[in-house]
Amino acid sequence: MPVTTTRWLAEYAWLPEHAEPTPDVLIEVDEGRITAVTPLLGAHGPDAGVDVYADAVPLPGLTVPGLANAHSHAFHRALRGRTHGGRGDFWTWRDQMYGVADRLDPDTYLALARAVYAEMALAGVTCAGEFHYLHHRPDGGTYDDPNEMGAALVEAAAHAGIRLTLLDTCYLTSTVDGQALAGPQRRFGDGDASRWAQRAGAFQPTDAHVRVGAAVHSVRAVPADQLSTVAEWAGERQAPLHVHLSEQPAENDECRAVHGRSPTALLAEHGVLGPNTTAVHTTHPTSADLTLLADSRTGVCLCPTTERDLADGIGPARLMAEAGIRLSLGSDSHAVIDLFEEARAVELDERLRTRRRGHFTPVDLLTAASSAGHAALGWADAGRIAVGARADLVTVRLDSARTAGVPPVGTFFAATAADVEQVVVDGRLVVAKGRHLSVDVPAESSAAIEAVTPR
Ligand SMILES: [Zn+2]
After folding, report:
1. Is residue 88 over pLDDT 90?
2. HEC sequence for 193-242
3. From the CA of 4, how far away is ligand 1's center (Å)?
4. pTM
């Protein structure tokens, strides 16, 4: 990747604690970090006669911090547009997803994930959280390197130019009452949580763009008496810990039938909740669940485009925010990869539910899509255009068919991923003029998907 110019002059930049974007901001970058942020206040800009910032590269449009996609299953991208022919629900979709999972190996997954992460870069995503459970061979046997699939994902992110938090997922059973994994699920399992911990602990990539965290797949997939093993593994490392939570009412019902309590209460009892934990979805919590999440300072990652695609329901985002739960966003199944769409859905879904407008400010949506997401993935120094932060800069056109005439503060209600013009990740230029500099995303996506989809 080319080393970027160290001085950018943003037509507008969205700075921390500002209710709306600031015009004419000089952003200086060195060694992948932001070293100075100077609003020019009209005094020294290109229109001010003497232009003392002539060497700065202009960034027309709105520059926002790097966006974080806090919940990804890269291989689900292969299902986009293929699961909409009939009726069906989350569970029938899951069977189709298993068909793809069955066909992936380290080479085909590298090719697919490289295209998916490059698609994310095109959408302004500078860091992804990969909730990874395709650990083993289709029959459940280990690869020569038991972390070969995880290594493929790390390499894919490097090719695509984005950072990755690999959330190594513990996935042991197929039901809340502990039935064994079968068929395509066999490759997800390590046998028990201590063997999961051993394998996950052996994966220690040293690349600067990657961080390893942990995940509990769900209360369906990790027996109650093994939850604390995963929680302790993450706690010892101060690593992010993610968990699918209450995406489906059926999960809540089964958990109550087997354990006599909600999934959230079960996780709380076994030490899974806490400030480094992110609950993904949380579409169907009780008010007691929300209190447990808030009191433990657990975050929630909403995935609205997936939740709508899978007919999951609408999570109570406003209630969560009022309880002080920090919200992040993920494109999850990648039915859509567009963090602008995820962000505005948080507000728009709440409008549909309540038939009222104005639940979240534009800054709330930006925060969920940027700094809160990076923090949920263990990169607390990213997601802000501020001195000392990682130099992730995403520039959005304000002159496209969608954004023309839109005030910059309204960008999250108007722009799509297609309006992202330039992306800088850790000071390196990854996307320029709306094109990825090293991956031909359409060509590589179609080839990689063709290789792994059943005909
Ligand atoms: Zn998921």
Report:
1. no
2. HHHHHHHHHHCCCCCCCEEEEEEECCCCCCCHHHHHHHHHHHHHHCCCEE
3. 34
4. 0.96
